[in-house]
Design a protein that fits this description.
The complex is a heterodimer of chains A (478) and B (215). Chain A starts with 6 loop residues before the first helix and ends in a 6-residue tail after the last helix. Helices cover 74% and strands 1% of the residues of chain A. Chain A is an all-alpha fold and 478 residues long. Chain A has 19 helices and two strands. In chain B, 77% of the residues lie in helices and 0% in strands. Chain B has one domain. Chain B has eight helices and no strands. Chain B is globular, with a radius of gyration of 17 Å. The chains are: A mainly alpha (478), B mainly alpha (215). At the A-B interface, helix 5, helix 6, helix 8 and helix 9 of A face helix 6, helix 7 and helix 8 of B.
């Protein structure tokens, strides 16, 4: 089927970030910022257009959209836009940046372009190229602040993510050898028999893409890259890069049809639960608030994979969780950027009493932390609740218990630490780091608002597309 | 096995021997020469397959293997080693060479048996297990080494394994040349950009357990 009405939006989704990346390199002050902001808004408008039209179908042999890609495209472009708008204040506070603003904005748009490309293609090989290209386009952004730890983090990210993706490529080789095609739409429409090569391909894809999703034990790059990257990039890593990698895996997983063999579902469940629990435990002991949020992302991705493995209404919960989490986690990272700019430190012990020193940022940080950890009435709460309900519905009560333990641990850990930083008094004889002005809190509040609205209201266009994407993957809607 | 299959298997064994050599070496310059030799052997194998199958894609892959992974990247790595003004030996691996070599041999045997038990019936090509073993050896190198130049060599070995597997099992894999070009671009980014930044910022290619990145 050829998409009608959608080609302009698809064209804009490709062209806007690409043009933004190229225009940003024009050596005139302010052009980079303007180009990235304009490109991100055009891309966001195009993705909203796809949502409104509920676009679904193919455009040529390699390009296509459906409810699932529409949903992820919206999430990616929204966080791209908020990061492009938030970056200016953050960049101004960076001392001796490794990248000029032009190069920073060019790479930011290139990073968005690679994610969008991965979401728009129907060929699993091209999708793999898109995911691999996200590593190339984002690695240099991590070293912006020129710290030895940033370089080490960029290095680990590039190597570990690439090593994982070569395993994913091996998976695609196996899949192609058995099926003779890498067309995700064709494979989903007529799933091949679950032969040993196909099952191995899906398992290897889980390990390969799982590296980029942040699944335990391949997650080791994640806390380093998230904590060392500038905050707007951390927001994109946590909010949309991990879900984009999960999207690529879902396309391979979909090859098994809407009722995958239990062996593969058990594998997903194991990876998901272990990742959620390990992430929830590890975030307790973090000394850096950015690393704490990074481990929180790992926990959320584990929960999302668990929802995918369970299927049914839990799958709907997983997709809702991914979308709502993108907005609240990006808000949490933008607030982290504000706190870092004002205090000059990421150490939890050195930040106190933000309630009086950075009241607006402190407020947004508390709200976003609550949202990140699934407090009601955020969309993340609804998503996590549905994963638990889904587990109980299929009779996997023990899975529901493990999920609840991970949620509880993450809730206590994140909110306890953020609460101390916002409401806690400095210990006697120890003064907190110097505090600057309270700015840059508008975008965090905006993102928190979207996640709240996802929880308390069925947002027009967005909530229905989550349902459609769930049905597409064989899940059930509540 | 016909003579064509024998030639492929023979070159494949040569590639495997270079992989085992890389695991047992702690001096960096021989490691760079070792990966160049491995890529050259792979280029030869791809050239042979391209000629026997009359495949332009495989010929392009052969050119890429020789030009980028046997030529350009080792050349850049050689320059990096000189720029670091460094003793040309991986500090952390120096005391553990015997252990690395034994682990590499054990892992190669295990990988071989796993392949024979699971995938050999699907990929009956001569030496079909070799790319699988090479992939595992590359992962082992990435996991156990701390020197960034040596880690690049581990990455290149992994890339060689994937190209080897693609050429042997699925020579008509769509967009394979483009995929390999992307992997090469990433390799060039690794050696050309991030290593340079690391030299400027830290002054050493030895990875360290930085306290800020603990936990």
């Amino acid at each position: 089927m050829i998409v009608t009405g959608a080609p302009l939006a698809i064209y804009l989704l490709f062209a806007a970030p690409a043009a933004g990346a190229l225009l940003a390199l024009v050596p005139i002050a302010g052009v980079g910022r303007l180009a990235a902001r304009a490109a991100s808004l055009v891309a966001l408008a195009a993705s909203v257009g796809l949502l409104v039209a509920s676009a679904s179908g193919r455009w040529g042999p390699y390009i296509g959209v459906d409810a699932l890609s529409d949903l992820f495209l919206f999430t990616v472009t929204a966080i791209y836009a908020t990061s492009a708008w938030y970056s200016d204040r953050y960049l101004r506070a960076v001392h001796r940046p490794f990248l000029t603003p032009q190069v920073y904005y060019a790479l930011l748009s290139a990073f968005a372009f690679t994610m969008i490309s991965a979401l728009l293609v129907t060929d699993l090989g091209l999708m793999w190229i898109g995911i691999e290209a996200t590593t190339v386009s984002s690695a240099l952004l991590i070293v912006l602040e020129r710290r030895p730890t940033s370089v080490e983090a960029a290095w680990r990210y590039t190597l570990i993510a690439s090593a994982g993706l070569t395993v994913a490529l091996f998976a695609l080789l196996l899949l192609y050898t058995d099926t003779g095609t890498l067309d995700a739409i064709r494979l989903a429409a007529a799933p091949p028999a679950a032969t040993l090569p196909v099952l191995m391909a899906v398992a290897l894809a889980l390990v390969g893409y799982g590296t980029k999703i942040g699944l335990f034990p391949m997650h080791t790059w994640l806390p380093d890259a998230h904590s060392e990257a500038p905050s707007p990039i951390s927001a994109m890593f946590s909010g949309v890069l991990l879900p984009t990698a999960l999207y690529a895996f879902l396309r391979v997983y979909r090859v098994l049809g809407t009722a995958p063999p239990s062996s593969i579902r058990d594998l997903l469940l194991t990876f998901g639960l272990v990742t959620a629990v390990v992430g929830a435990f590890l975030l307790q002991s973090q000394r850096s608030y950015k690393r704490m949020f990074a481990y929180s992302s790992m926990e959320v991705m584990g929960l999302a994979l668990t929802g995918v493995a369970i299927g049914g209404v839990a799958l709907y919960g997983a997709l809702l969780l991914i979308v709502a989490h993108a907005f609240v986690k990006s808000a949490a990272f933008y607030c982290s950027g504000n706190v870092l700019r004002a205090t000059g430190t990421t150490r939890i012990d050195d930040v106190r009493d933000l309630r009086t020193q950075l009241p607006w940022t402190g407020g947004a940080w508390v709200l976003s932390s609550l949202g990140v950890t699934g407090a009601p009435p955020f969309g993340t709460f609804v998503g996590e609740l549905l994963i638990v309900v889904g587990a109980v519905e299929v009779g996997a009560d023990w899975v529901a218990v493990v999920v609840l333990i991970a949620i509880f641990l993450a809730f206590v850990g994140v909110n306890g630490q953020v609460g101390r930083m916002v409401f806690g008094e400095s210990p006697a004889g120890r003064s907190p780091a110097a505090v600057g002005t309270d700015t840059g809190f508008e975008i965090p509040y905006l993102n928190v608002g979207v996640a709240l609205a996802l929880g308390v209201a069925s947002l027009p266009y967005l909530a229905p597309i989550v349902r459609s994407a769930t049905v597409l993957l064989g899940g059930a809607v509540p | 096995m016909n003579s064509s299959g024998e030639i492929e298997a023979l070159i494949g064994v040569g590639i495997l021997l270079t992989a085992l050599f890389l695991q047992s070496e702690s001096f960096v310059s021989p490691l760079v020469r070792g990966i160049a030799l491995q890529s050259l052997l792979l280029g030869g194998l791809l050239g042979w397959l391209a000629w026997s199958q009359q495949s332009l894609d495989l010929a392009l892959l052969a050119v890429l293997a020789v030009a980028i992974r046997a030529g350009f990247i080792p050349w850049v790595l050689g320059r990096q080693i000189r720029a670091f003004r460094w003793r040309l030996r991986e500090v952390h691996a120096a005391q553990r060479v015997t252990g690395h070599a034994l682990a590499a041999i054990a892992l190669a045997i295990v990988a071989w048996f796993v392949f024979q038990e699971t995938l050999a019936s699907i990929f009956p090509q001569p030496g079909g297990a070799l790319p699988f073993v090479l992939l595992v050896e590359g992962l082992l190198m990435l996991a156990t080494r701390t020197n960034t130049i040596v880690q690049v060599i581990g990455y290149l070995e992994e890339e060689n394994a994937v190209v080897y597997a693609g050429a042997l099992f699925a020579p008509r894999f769509p967009l394979f040349v483009e995929v390999v070009v992307f992997l090469d671009v990433l390799g060039v980014v690794l050696v050309g950009v991030i290593l340079s930044i690391q030299r400027d910022v830290t002054g050493t290619p030895e990875g360290s357990a930085l306290e800020e990145l603990a936990g």
